[in-house]
């Protein structure tokens, strides 16, 4: 049996995904397929490294030394053909805290910040919570995929004198892995209009066949000098609860401003076990990751096939990366609140509300497919059965 087919009960572990589901959906029968963590065991080597660290029995202040940075730079070079210098790395407890720090460090109140919608909900809050002006470049839904409207992208930047662009690549929730051509076009516009780029690339390692993740900062030196990239092993290896991520900033001036902001907020250390897990994952986790990506791709294909063959009311967008699928439910003809209620009370599946990703997400829902096949099959069957009962 594949290591990714084993069901590990998570209730009673204070799991956000499983233990909060009953409160969130008001029904203990709802199957949680929402928040972005995986129902898979971590790599055995990472588990062993954590166990050995726990056996040591002392958890004092812990500093990630140059060995950890070398593991990071080696991983980025091997997996993404990106040569990063160790000095460019800043540690952080997570990508969301990083986004808050970057916004505060590199922009001023009222500065315009551009995002591409529908997109990961915290992109909205990190702009609005710090009194920056939110500018949107809506992605265009054509056939079965989303495209960038480059004319609108540049016009919004010009009209609003945008200072910063937050890129999501691979894109959550629509599953696009932006091509080199698309990245180059966005980059050229940002250089032309002197826009900083913040790249959330946390799903960079979760890429399906036929697609390649290209760090936008790796395109050329002009882009490298105006880009801050947010990365982490936590999505890749299911380590989110250990809170260990990092930023890559080649521009010394920008990096020093960001580092100072972290210090101002007292964020100067990582979780001891997070450091241990990061090192072990990047050292020993590649074989596990290859099998994971094959599993996720087969799961994507399974979900797409089931919906395509058994109902015309829900379309599954063919994700190019991540373990999150974007479901086009508009043919059900339901208002968004009724669509949420349908999934929750009739299908009894806990999904992410498409509208939480922006107004362009209305009529859509997001499903997490990073679960053993028995759980995935149950969830898909519940939705299809409810659709048929509703026809």
From TrEMBL:
Family: Belongs to the class-II pyridoxal-phosphate-dependent aminotransferase family. MalY/PatB cystathionine beta-lyase subfamily.
Keywords of this entry: Lyase, Pyridoxal phosphate
EC number: 4.4.1.13
Domain Aminotransferase class I/classII large: 36-371
Protein name: cysteine-S-conjugate beta-lyase
Pfam family for this entry, one: Aminotran_1_2
Needed co-factor(s): pyridoxal 5'-phosphate
Top-level class of the enzyme under EC nomenclature: lyase
Keyword Lyase (UniProt): yes
An example Gene Ontology molecular-function term: pyridoxal phosphate binding
InterPro entries found in the cross-reference section: Aminotransferase_I/II_large, C-S_lyase_PatB-like, Class-II_PLP-Dep_Aminotrans, PyrdxlP-dep_Trfase, PyrdxlP-dep_Trfase_major, PyrdxlP-dep_Trfase_small
């Amino acid at each position: 049996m594949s290591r990714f087919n084993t069901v590990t009960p998570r209730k009673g572990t204070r799991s956000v995904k499983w233990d909060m589901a009953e409160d969130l959906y008001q029904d203990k029968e709802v199957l949680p397929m929402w928040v972005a963590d995986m129902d898979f065991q971590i790599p055995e080597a990472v588990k062993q490294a954590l166990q050995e660290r726990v056996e040591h029995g002392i958890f004092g202040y812990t500093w990630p030394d140059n060995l950890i940075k070398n593991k990071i730079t080696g991983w980025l070079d091997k997996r993404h053909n990106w040569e990063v210098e160790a000095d460019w790395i800043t540690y952080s407890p997570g990508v969301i805290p990083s986004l808050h720090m970057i916004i505060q460090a590199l922009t001023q109140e009222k500065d315009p910040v551009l995002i591409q919608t529908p997109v990961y909900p915290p992109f909205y809050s990190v702009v609005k919570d710090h009194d920056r002006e939110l500018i949107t470049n809506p992605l265009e839904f054509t056939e079965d995929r989303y495209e960038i409207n480059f004319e609108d992208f540049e016009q919004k930047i010009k009209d609003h004198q945008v200072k910063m662009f937050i890129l999501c690549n691979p894109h959550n929730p629509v599953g696009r892995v932006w091509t080199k051509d698309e990245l180059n076009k966005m980059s050229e516009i940002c250089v032309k209009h002197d826009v900083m780029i913040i790249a959330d690339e946390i799903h960079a390692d979760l890429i399906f066949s036929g697609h390649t993740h290209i760090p936008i900062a790796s395109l050329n030196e002009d882009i490298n000098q105006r880009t801050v990239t947010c990365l982490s092993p936590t999505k890749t290896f299911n380590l989110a609860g250990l809170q260990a991520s990092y930023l890559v900033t080649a521009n010394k001036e920008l990096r020093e401003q960001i580092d100072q902001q972290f210090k101002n907020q007292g964020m100067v250390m990582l979780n001891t076990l997070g450091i241990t897990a990061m090192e072990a994952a990047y050292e020993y986790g590649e074989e596990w990751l290859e099998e994971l990506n094959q599993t996720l791709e087969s799961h994507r294909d399974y979900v797409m096939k089931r919906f395509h063959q058994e109902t015309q009311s829900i379309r599954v967008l063919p994700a190019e990366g991540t373990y999150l699928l974007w479901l086009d439910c508009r043919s059900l003809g339901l208002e968004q609140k009724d669509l949420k209620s349908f999934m929750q009370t009739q299908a009894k599946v806990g999904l992410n509300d498409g509208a939480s990703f922006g107004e362009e997400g209305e009529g859509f829902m997001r499903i997490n497919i990073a679960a053993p096949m028995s759980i995935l099959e149950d969830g898909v069957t519940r939705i299809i059965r409810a659709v048929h009962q509703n026809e």
